[in-house]
Every structure is written in C-alpha cells, then in structure tokens.
Amino acid sequence: MSFEYDLLATAKAVPELRDRLRAHPYDVRLCATELITNVIDHVGEGTPVTVRVRSTAHGHTRVEVTDPDPRALPTLLHATLTAESGRGLALLNALATRWGVEQGVNSKTVWCEVATD
Fold first, then answer.
1. Cα distance between the two ends of the chain
2. I need a labelling partner for 79 at 20 to 30 A (CA). Which of 41, 87, 93, 114 fits?
3. 114 by DSSP, 3-state: which?
C-alpha cells in the first residue's frame, strides 16, 4: 500500500494525517505524526511538507516527511523526566527499526522504517 500527501504542517493537520493513515498500523501513524510535529516545532508552523508511506520488500513500512529546510536537522535528545519536549525522536527511535535523514540542496527528508509483518 502506497500513500503520498501534501499538506501544511499545522496542529490541525496532525489529526487529519492520522485519520488519512487509518488503514496503517498504529506505530506507522504515530511515527508520521511525530515527524510532522517536528516540522512544526523546528522548521515552523505552516511549512509545506510531503508525507509518503509505502511498504518495503523487507516487511517494513517506510514513512518519509519532506520539508523545504535542509538546515534544520533532527537531533535525538535525551529528555529529562520533567522536560516538556524532546521526546519525539526518542519515540521514533524506539518504534522504528531504523531512521535517518536525506539532505538535499533545497529540502530534507526525514524517514523511518517500522516493522509491520
């Protein structure tokens, strides 16, 4: 199953994206919405993004979020118990079998692969 969706990264778009991905497993929906939330928090509210979700040949589902800022790279943080942020990539790191960033000249794509077999 393949999915591609262009949207503006806004708080309203997060539940809408989760709803559009309802045919996918929970971990896939959670990773996709965490990646959108990272764009909102670190690139800016209203940033245009493209979300792609597809099955791989190895029984995984790949989630990709592309935004137009190649400089704002994700960083895995170790949030304290009382921190109000900093857990998004830790959650992604825990759920995904692997994740990374593909940096382009005018964009970047943050991706992860979730086991779904």
1. 13
2. 114
3. strand
Angle at CA of residue 27, ends 5 and 46, nearest 5°: 35
> Could you give the number of structural domains in the chain?
1
| DSSP E strand boundaries for 40-97 | 47-55, 60-67
Which residue range is the domain that position 95 belongs to?
2-115
Q: What is the pLDDT of residues 42-89, one digit of tens each?
A: 999 999 999 999 999 888 999 999 999 998 888 766 666 665 666 778
pLDDT at 113: 97
pTM above 0.85, yes or no: yes
CATH code at position 103 = 3.30.565.10
Residue type, 116: T
> φ, ψ for residue 76 (rounded to 5)?
-75, 120
| Amino acid in the structure at residue 111 | W
Token output for 113 = 């692969």
